[in-house]
Amino acid sequence: MDKFGMHNQTEQLYARYEGTGNADTTRYEWLTNQHRDTLAHYVMDDSLAMFISIAEGESVVRTKFKMLERMQQPCGPPPKKEDS
Amino acid sequence: MADSVEDTSTKAPGSNGKVVESSSDLSALKYDTELYGNGDKYAGYDRSIETGGSNNDVPAVSMAKGRFGITAPREFIDELQTAEHDADEDPFKEILRMRGINRVIADRENDYQKRRHTRKLSNERGDGTGGSTYADRVRAVQLENEEAELVAKIKKAEASGRQAGASKWDVETPIQQVEAQAPQRRKRWDQTPADVRSSVAMTPQRRSRWDETPRVADGAASETPKRTRSRWDETPMLDRVAPDYGATPAGGAAIDYGATPAGRQMAAGLATPAGGHMAGVLTQQPGSVVDARNQYQTDEELDALLPDEGYVIMEAPASYVAIRTPARKLMSTPAAEIGGVAGFRMEAETEARIEAMEEVREVPGVGALPFFRAEDMQVFGQLLDGQDETELDAEARRERQALRLVLKIKNGTQAQRKVAMRQLGARACELGAAAVLNPVLALLMAAGLEDQERHVLVKAADRALQRLGAQARPFVHRILVVVEPLLIDEDRHARAEAREVISNVSKAAGLAAMLAALRPDVDHADEYVRNTTARALAVVAVALGVAAALPFLRAVGRSKRAWQARQTGARAVRHTAELARAGVLPHLRGLVDCVGAGLEDEHQAVRSAAALALAALAEAAAPYGIEAFDSVLKPLWLGVRRQRGPGLAAFLKAVGFVVPLMDVEHAAHYAREALHVVVREFQSPDTQMRAVVLRVVQQCVATSGVSPSLVRTDVLPDFVRCFWARRAALDRRHARHVIDATVALAAAAGGAPVVERLVAHLKDESAAHRAMAVDAVARTVSELGIADIDARLEELLMDGVLYAFQELPPDAARTELDALGSVLRALGGRAAPYLQQIASALLWRLNNPSSAVRQQAAALVAHVAPVAHVCGGDGDDLLARIATVLFECLGEEFPDVLAALLSALRAIVDVIGLPAMQPPVADLLPRLAPILKNRHEGVQEACINLVGRIADRAADRVPAREWMRCCFSLLDLLRAYRKPVRRAAVATFGFIARAIGPQDVLATLLNNLRVQDRQNRVCTTVAIAIVAESCAPFTVLPALMNEYRVPELNVQNGVLKALAFLFEYIGDAARDYVDAVAPLIADALVDRDLVHRQQAAAIMKHLALAVSGHACDRPMLHLLNHLWPNIFETSPHAICAVLEAIESCRVCLGPARILLYTLQGMFHPARAVRDVYWRIYNMTYVAAQPALVAFYPRIEDSSPNNYRRYELDYVL
Q1: Residue B1020 within any structural domain of the chain
Q2: In a domain, B255, yes or no
Q3: What InterPro entries does the database record attribute to this sequence (chain A) (predicted)?
Q4: Are B213 and B302 part of one and the same domain?
Q5: Is residue B221 part of a domain?
Q6: Higher local confidence (pLDDT), B343 or B183
């Protein structure tokens, strides 16, 4: 149970954060979280959002909106469950 | 004779060898040499009474070799045999029981609490499936109420009849009348035994007995058919509760007996009539608690005692009526203390009984239990009937499983209890509510219940209820009946437990079920029932939200039918306010509405309850919510003006709590008006009224609108006259209230008028009264200062204070000394004229033969010192003189006094400074060094504080040699029990090291790392770190690192620990030493020894935090590379230290580096590896997620997913 000598409370604390994982986290989940974090970072940081919008030739607001939209499935559909 | 006394006390009864008969002259006894073998008649007995515990290890009884061979006394052998069983349990429990020390709850209840025994568990079938409807219960309660009324009427009639002299006691008892007149009673106490009789008649009966109780283990009875019963006292009356204490006669219990045929469930081995016995257990009288000495005699015993011929066993006369009045039953012989009984007793019989009880320690399916009492048999006997469980149906099996768990919880060892408790919680739903709750509730109602048992059973019920949820609904009322009495228990833990259980029941069963269960009791005739019901109602309201319960509370509070209901409603509101505190604020108006009408009720009890409820609401709502009270202000106010007596107390209390909520003008008005009534009631003899008045007067004078002159002229004189009487000091609680009120009055009226009136009391003859006056004066002058005290009053005050000091009783509390001290402190410079007088009194008392007086004087010196110092030059001289006397007294042998002397010296040193100190420091310190070795904690603390002070402020005045000697004494203090002592000792090392240079001190400390005692080593490492901090690290580090080369584990670990503390203390000064210590730490990180690595990780943690931002990346990265392989440690301490070190490295090196390390193992094939790496990743992620965005690895797309974060590739 408490293999790492820490109390389970820390585990629970970590588990409250969406982006944390465990030994069973798949590559897809991990990367999806990365993308969401990244996109959130862009959206929150006005300078970065401006930079990206200039590069894409869009308005800042539209860029931000597109990024927010993308956060639903940033890496595409989840892989099919193999079995079970 | 000495010997015989010793014999009986040291020999276990029943061990071999006969006890010499008690006789005044042993030498006159003839004894049979044949019987006693070798001639020494005293062989086997001690010849003297052992006075001390000095030779406890010598066996008290040594056996004569010739006859018995060499053997240990029987009792020791027995003890060894039982020792294994008893290892876990509380060894005192059984001993206490045997000695008659009573933990039984029922025995210490007062009359009011005893009324709980008259309540019944509701008249439904024991298995909880039948279930009486709500209507049934309402009807039953109604019936009870009618009965109560009837009885009251009859009693009244009887009383009047008796007055006329016409009463005939032998015609008809009132109880019988009741029975004749209450036609709806379902069963009669005298109807039950019918089937019992028939079952007994079938057993092979020798003859009927004239005395027999069904109390002794029933399981045994069925196995040994010899123990038959007499016919006539088979009636349940003897053993059972006489139904009640006057309120509801004859009904309750009897109904239960008849109506519970659930034999299979609880009853011991008995086949048929067990229902009655079960109920008997439930409601057994507290007075008839089972004790070996107090049991009824069995048939066997009677057979043995009485000859067969010449005696006839009589039938009971037809007119016989068993004792039914509970008062008389309570007066039956109490359980005697076995140890203290000097009279005749039949040892063997007692033994046999105890053994008979202990036989069943082993219960099938449960294992060995620490104890199993006869009462337990009646609930758990079913487990002992030896029936094959596989033949039983599923339900019976579940019942047995639940019983077994409950038995383990009640009687088991701690370990058994824990496991069983967990299982009971986990399996409650599967076992079923009935199976779990029935035995628990039955046991909770048993008469012989003890504190500990009640605690575990309540906890078990609580656990089960949490899981049972809605399943618990049929049991709500019974749970309430069992748990409600705990709500008025003296023990507040019991109260808290009860609240928890009730709130869990409410959450499980829902509001509707709770209210249905509580509703019939709301207007119960018995005040006790209403009281507990109100409290339960409040708990339910708080548990399920006041808003939800409010409609019900309102309905109850405005009930038209019964004033009892209105009273209960008001009480429930009051308890709700007490429980919910500020939580009542949103519902304040609603709650006030519930009770508002009650203020004008026709019944006194309702009016009082309503006023008290308002008081509680106002107290809980303070300082908000005055709007809610608008509607009740007028009736409250009228009540205060019109009421008298106890009703007035409640109204005054309410006004007292409402006034502080008002705005200034209103508050002033109401306070002034209320003060008239309050002042009038000062003279009330009623203690409750006095308590209320004391409270209200504080609240009234605290409002800003009450002018000081009003308080001074109208309140103060009467207050002092009525409350500052000697008897006020007798009750401590009352005294505290009086003092509080006095201080509040002083705050309102100014200090001087109050002090003026109290100075006379400072010279009172009664010590307690003086103490009270000193306390009040001290608090007044320390809070309000002495600016308004003129010279004459000052003189009177000092006179009184000095008198109080002179007359201080030797056992005076510390608070009194403190009070005297604070008066002096408040006087400050104005105490100068009296200093001489004070000093001479102190000096005289310092030489008093009584140690307590000396201690007080020394303690007072500590208080006087700062005052004397502010008084100017004369004062310092005086202090120096006192210090000299104190110094001479240091040979004191009473440790408490010595500690006080040292504290006094320190106080003087603090104010006059070390240079001016007399005797000079150089003389003082050598005298203190030996005292450091004193074992008394108080002395140690006082001494180390003084030494530390000297080392801090005047180390250069003492030769270095002296300090070194001190160092050696200090080493011992490093393992002192008290933490302040250890801390002071460690700090003193720092001071000394700064004074005489670190080398010598460090050498001493490093040597100390070689000692065995771990705590000593730990403290030494702390001291080393402190020395390093106070004398710069470079003076210590080389020697410390050199010490690491000593090939000894303790020393090396000590060095590492010292380094950890060192880097923790010196902070970012560590950046200069990173390169120096890095090789050492790297070496420790790859050591074979786990503790080495753990310590090194701890060093790294502090080091990395200290040097973060100081460009020490390279050495830290180097260390991190050594640290990283340790992440697979499994020892809790080690892995904690390693993870913390990595976390610190994240701070120092940045999260990106840690992420790169982590990426290596997050998708490792081995789960063990992934576990750790994910943990570290999570750690980093939670702490520094935004920083990671730029450093996530680039992952190529794999259809259908696109994993690339292409925005990162944009270049403008």
Answers
A1: no
A2: yes
A3: SF3b5/RDS3-10
A4: yes
A5: yes
A6: B343
**Between residues B81 and B1003, which one has the greater pLDDT?**
B1003
Substitution target from B1131, B1185, B1194, B1196 for chain A, most A beta carbons within 10 A = B1185
Q: Which residues of chain A neighbour B1210 with C-beta distances below 8 Å?
A: 51-52, 55-56
Place of tokens 């620990």: B1057
The yes-or-no verdict on residue A46 having pLDDT over 80 is: yes
Residue B627 near chain A (CB below 8 Å): no
The complex scores an ipTM of 0.94
Angle at B1103 between CA B1099 and CA B1106, to 5 degrees: 145
Tell me how far apart the alpha carbons of residues B777 and B754 are, in angstroms, rounded to a whole number: 8
User: What are the chain A neighbours of B1185 within 8 Å (beta carbons)?
Assistant: 19, 37
Least confident of A67-71, B187-191, B429-433: B187-191
The answer to whether B1166 faces chain A, any CB pair under 8 Å, is no
B352-366, B659-673, B779-793: least confidently modelled range: B352-366
Clarify whether residues B130 and B212 are in a common domain: yes
Residues B81 and B122 placed together within one structural domain of the fold: no
Q: Are residues B111 and B45 in the same domain?
A: no
Residues in a beta bridge with B367: B363
A1 touches chain B (CB under 8 A): no
Q: Which amino acid is at B457?
A: L
Instruction: Give residue-wise pLDDT tens across range B379-427.
Output: 888 887 777 777 788 888 888 889 999 999 988 888 889 889 888 888 8
Minimum distance, in Å, between the CA of residue A3 and any CA atom of chain B:
7
Do residues B114 and B252 share a domain?
A: yes
CB spacing of A14 vs B1182 below 8 angstroms: yes
A20 with B1130: Cβ contact below 8 A: no
Q: Do B1171 and A52 touch (CB under 8 A)?
A: no
- Cβ contacts of B781 within 8 Å, gap of 6 or more: B751, B755, B789, B797, B822, B823, B826, B827
Last residue of a domain, one of B309, B333, B357: B333
**DSSP code at position B1152:** H
Average pLDDT of span B802-810: 86
Would the pTM of this model clear 0.80, i.e. be above it?
Answer: no
CB contact under 8 A, A23 and B1167: yes
CB–CB contact A4 B1162 (8 Å) = no
pLDDT of residue B1056: 96
Of B333, B362, B392, the residue that ends a domain is B333
Residue range B487-494: mean pLDDT, rounded: 90
Count of domains observed in chain B: 2
Q: Does B1134 contact A5 at a Cβ distance shorter than 8 Å? A: yes
- Alpha-carbon distance of A41 to A61, in angstroms, equals 15
Q: Same domain, yes or no, for B121 and B224? A: yes
Residue pLDDT, tens place only, B80-113: 555 444 444 455 555 666 665 667 777 777 888 8
What's the gap between Cα B328 and its chain centre? 35
Q: Given this model, what pLDDT does residue B71 score?
A: 55
Q: Let me know whether B144 and B188 are in one domain.
A: yes
Q: What is the mean pLDDT of residues B328-354?
A: 46
Task: Identify the band that residue B145 occupies on the pLDDT scale cut at 50, 70 and 90.
Answer: confident
Assess whether B112 and B65 both reside in one domain: no
> CB-based contacts of B1002: which residues, under 8 Å, 6+ apart?
B993, B1024, B1027, B1035, B1036, B1039, B1040
Query: B1048 in a domain, yes or no?
Result: no
The answer to whether the CB atoms of A28 and B1134 lie below 8 A apart is no
Domain of residue B80, residue span: 2-87
User: What pLDDT, in 10s, does the model give residues B115-125?
Assistant: 777 776 654 43
The beta-carbon neighbor of B1185 closest among A19, A23, A75 is A19
Contact yes or no for B498/B457 (Cβ under 8 A): no
Determine, for residues A75 and B1212 on separate chains, whether the beta-carbon distance falls below 8 Å.
no
| Minimal C-alpha gap between A50 and chain B (Å) | 12
- Residue B878 CB: number of other CB atoms within 10 A? 22
